[in-house]
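Appendix C: a fully annotated inverse folding record. The material below is reproduced so that readers can follow the format used throughout the book. The structure is listed first as tokens, followed by the designed sequence.
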């Protein structure tokens, strides 16, 4: 009887510490490593470009079609700014979004998301402009942060790979 009681007490003492450790480990594993927002084309000449921000502060702009600068460009932004933006996506629980939202108006440019987590798990969201409002709000924040409207800080790193873009 004493042995059973000692085992129960030991389990009760160890359980909270183990749960806290597991929770901390889970948060690191599930952390968003990067977010890419792709603005797709419409039936006209809507700009087709993508912006990707990484935790290390690297911002990548890829101009596909109907933009002033086609190709792949990168610049370093403040790491704290990049982390704040990615943490906002986490706080909005972007991981709970649907993979596809029904397109209400086919002629409007579409908004696509690719979210990469630390362990290389990837979540894609198609037609995000028809999803929760924060998806378009956050895309606007990324545009303000990195839409290639000037050449300050940008470095061309390549061409658009064949077959890319929508």
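Designed amino acids, in order:
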């Amino acid at each position: 009887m004493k042995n059973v009681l000692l085992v129960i007490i030991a389990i009760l003492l160890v359980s909270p510490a183990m749960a806290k450790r597991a929770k901390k480990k889970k948060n690191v594993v599930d952390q968003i490593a990067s977010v890419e927002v792709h603005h797709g084309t419409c039936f006209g000449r809507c700009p087709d470009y993508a912006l990707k921000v990484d935790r290390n502060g690297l911002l990548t702009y890829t101009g596909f079609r109907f933009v002033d600068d086609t190709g792949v460009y990168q610049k370093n932004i403040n790491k704290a700014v990049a982390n704040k933006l990615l943490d906002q996506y986490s706080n909005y629980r972007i991981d709970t979004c649907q993979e596809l939202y029904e397109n209400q108006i086919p002629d409007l440019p579409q908004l696509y998301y690719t979210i990469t987590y630390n362990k290389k798990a990837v979540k894609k969201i198609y037609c995000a402009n028809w999803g929760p409002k924060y998806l378009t709000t956050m895309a606007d924040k990324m545009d303000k942060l990195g839409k290639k409207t000037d050449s300050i800080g940008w470095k061309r790193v390549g061409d658009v790979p064949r077959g890319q873009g929508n």
